[in-house]
């Protein structure tokens, strides 16, 4: 089934090239169906890139989805035009009275800042508090996952001695959990972060369960017992070249970055990396939409 997005959103043409079923607003208006309403709080600097990443995964579901884009007013984006934000994005003030089936909170490259030092932390806290009563289930990604664990459960993040960057094998802890249904016993996930959350602290919270982890990168998926809060510390939405773009950017800036682990063939940055995690990413998002959103949300929001 299609995802419904604004007619002129730049991601539309890219998704159509990939045969992702995209329906624009003018066509969707003619259909008599109640799609799932999913809101994306996009905190990433390159917002158009992240839009494409997430819409690609949402469009792989058999469910019809009406996607809305949200940004924070208390931060001025340096990498996305104000025209794009004004045309396609809303703020929490615009949607506060609305109900949504699902919310996705993206990552942000700000792990090295204390949460309260982030210029939009107060606004983000307001959004996460609002989500408790206005959203059926919220999916937090990377820094968004760490921020969510801190806001909802008081769990701190810890700086790593070196940045985790690359593609890493993961395992599941309970194959009967709905969110990991259909996962391989071992699967690959991209990570790109400077901070981490500690397993032993999560295990002390009765309302949380660790569903997946990695020997190299630690905890990967955490879920609340009621399924309303899902935390994913990696970047399953990344495409084949996202880590390459990050590496090339840091190399050009003279930061002498480490080569992303298990990413380039033969660890050679002159070779093109291959996409080896899309199956997992598609199943993860489909399971979230099906089991934690579609089957839990009321027909009348």
Over all CA atoms, what is the radius of gyration? 18 Å
Low-pLDDT runs: none
**Average pLDDT, all residues:** 92
Number of strand elements: 12
Total helical segments: 10
Approximate shape: globular
The CATH architecture: 3-Layer(aba) Sandwich
| CATH topology label | Rossmann fold
CATH class: Alpha Beta
Characterize the largest beta sheet: strand count, sense, and whether it forms a barrel: 12 strands, mixed
Number of structurally distinct domains: 1
CATH superfamily: Class I glutamine amidotransferase (GATase) domain
How much β-strand is present in the residues? 25-35%
Order of helices and strands: EHEHEHEHEHEHEHEEHEEEHH
CA-CA gap between termini? 21 Å
Structural class by helix and strand composition? alpha/beta
What share of the residues lie within helices? 25-40%
